[in-house]
Every structure is written in structure tokens, then in C-alpha cells.
Specification:
transmembrane, about 0% strand, mainly alpha, about 450 residues, 21 helices, globular
Length: about 450
Amino acid sequence: MNSICTVLCFCLFVFFQIISGHFLAIESGVVCFYLLVSNLSYHKFNINFKYLFAPQNFAFIIFFFRLYIIPCIAIFYGYPSVGGYNEDFTQETILQSYIILLFMYISFISGWTYFQLKPRNNVYKYKINHKQIYIVSSIFLLFGIFSLIIYFRDINTYLSNIYLSETEEIVGFKNKIIQLCSIWAKFFLPFAILGYLTLICFNNKNIVFKFCILFLSAILILFFSLNSNRQSMVYPLLTLFAAFTPKIIKIKPIPAILCGIICLYFLIAFADIRTSPNASTTAYSIQTQELAKTVELYAGGAHMITPVIENNEFKCTIINSFFHSLPAIGKLFRDHSGLTIYNQLYFGFSGRSDLVFHTQSECYMNGGYILVMLFFILIGYFYAYLNHIYIHSMDSQLLFRATIFYIAILFNSSILQSFQVMGQFLFYNAIPALIILFLYRKNIR
């Protein structure tokens, strides 16, 4: 952030404390330090308004939520409990949790800045011939359609898989291999659509034509991605918009922000709707306090780290967490993964949970500040690399731009979520993207 935004953000934070009557010393110090570091690194790491879907914007938003928005929310609503864990967090644990988050942020910025030190003004053109794209897209399409037909059999069964209860019932009597193919199908089909879009020439086409193609493609991708998992639907849609913006369609920041807020409403509403086929989809009201709790929970606030600080005797869980979600072989790792330990200690069971064991928490539990520093320096460097390729590949084909963004948004899980989710994304979500990257590997010109 530049100096003006830095001052305005801090003044707003102070204003919130004045009107609420709650003065938070720790959060004030954290916000001040975060804004100062953000200001110093402004020319290296900030919001890119030219490329709204640049990976750096998503990383920036994550840190902004964790180190500014959540402290603002804490002024009015405090911190929610972590499952059954005691919600009366001590000032010492909250302080240490924020220190871990700040350490994570500084390490990420260091890795990011190190990548930027060497001038990199290369403009890349990644292209493969249309025949190859058509063949790959057709294979993806046939595999996806065939897998979904075999698994779900009819359209009503397919549509009902957005509900958690219905999904579990369907899964209960299906062959595991067919089940795995049906999961992969929902990631292959969006890339089939992106491949066919690459074959369309958008040059000299009017804006109405472009928006119509974008709208129809979004409907198709959403339909083929229908899932009880929100991320599996959102990521392909974001990838579609990232492929179109700004090369084909230029979207201004204000409309993009408004659309993002509307989408956030539906995402939060979907969390309740998916739990019951009888839930109302026409009217859904979100209470302010419930919204605040949801943001603190899913954005990974400092309070999510506090249990690890008081119980850090568990080590060597990262590898187990990474392989936790793999079919068959994952059973060998689940009993000792970070997610399982987290559930056993704080929720009283070892089954599945909608919560995640965040990467910074697991790094701290396994190796303290040193591991947090090393891991997020590496993450910052590689994330800067992906961001560089995305921005400097605007003259590449739509399919390549989409693939790079998709890999980056999945890689974003290392910042936003957990090692378990990272492994899950790599084995399930990323397979079609990795196949496409393999096809592009020797086609730089």
C-alpha cells in the first residue's frame, strides 16, 4: 500500500476502536507493523489494478484479511471459539499468534522481493497448434462426460450432489475407481471448455459477442463443476475470468469488487444450503455477527493458531498431512496427519471436519519460527515466479494463461489453507492443468 492508503487504513482502525469503546493494544501494534511493512514493500508487492486477476492480488488480499480485516472485526466481536476449544484466549497466546502471522508475512515478502531483485522483463508467447488443443480438449470432454454418466446415471442425481447428505449416500455404494474418475471429471471438463475457447478468434469481435461467450462459458463451467465443495466450483470460474481479463475483456476495479461481494454472499449462503435439500435458496439473510465469525474462521485469523501454541508437542506431521487426502495410500498417513491430530485434540473426534489445520500453524508446530520462515520464503519466491509468468504471458494462448492462473490459485492453498488441502489440490484439481503444462513445455517463442 502507498503512504496515503497506509495512513487512511490506520486512522480507520483507530476510529473503529473509538466508536466501539474497545481499545486493543496488541491488534493496534499488529496493524501498525503490517501497514508499515506493506508501505515499505509497496513497489514490490501490492495490488495490481491493470491485471485484476494477477495471482499477487489474491495473496495480497489473504494477508490483508488476516492482518487488518480480522483485527478490525475483533474490535466489535472478539474471536470465535475453535470448535470445542476454550474461547477465552489469553493476551499472551493472541500476541504470539499474531507474531507467527507477521513472521509468515515478512518471510513471504522476503521471498517475493528476492525474486524481483533480478530484472525480468521477458514477454513470453506460449503456443501450441490448434489441432493439438482440439484433440486434448476433446479427450478431456469425453472422459469427463463418460465418467459423470457412469457415476451419476441421471441429471437429478447429478444435481443433488451439491448436498452433503446426498453426496455421502451416493458415494456409499459406488465403485471407488468410478468415484475417483467422477471427481477428476469435474476438473477435466472446465479445461475442455477453456481449450475450445482457445480455438475461437476474439480479434475484431464486438464487446457483446465477447461477454456472451464469457457468460455461456461460465454457465457451462459452473454446471460441470457442481459440487458440495465450494472451491471446486469457484476456482474454475475464477480461471475463466483470469483467462479473459484483460487480454480479451477489460474489467474495471469497482464493478469487479461489487461482483466479488455478491459472490461472497452466495458462497456463504451455499454453506448452509448444501447441508439440506430443503434449505431455502430464494431468501437467505446473513447476520453481521455470523458473517464476522465466518470471515475470521475461513480467512485463518490469529485465534486459529492459539491451540498449537499451548500444545506443540506433536512433530513430523507435514508429510502425513500432505498425503492425507490421497485415495488408498492416504490411509497410511491419516492417523498421524496434522488434521487428524487437530480434530482429536480440539474437536474430540478423528473424522472429517470443515475446518483446516493452517500451514503456518503446522509449520510452527513442527519447526517453530525457523520452519515458518523457510517455508514462506520459498512460497513467496515461487508465487512471484508464477505471478511473473502470468503477467508476461498475455500474448500467449487463452488456455496457457488459464492454466498458469489455475496452478497459482491452487498454490494459494499453501498460504490460505493447509498441507492436507495442498496435497488434495495437487492430486485431484491440478491433474488437467499439469497435463496442459506438459504440452506447452517446449513451445516457447
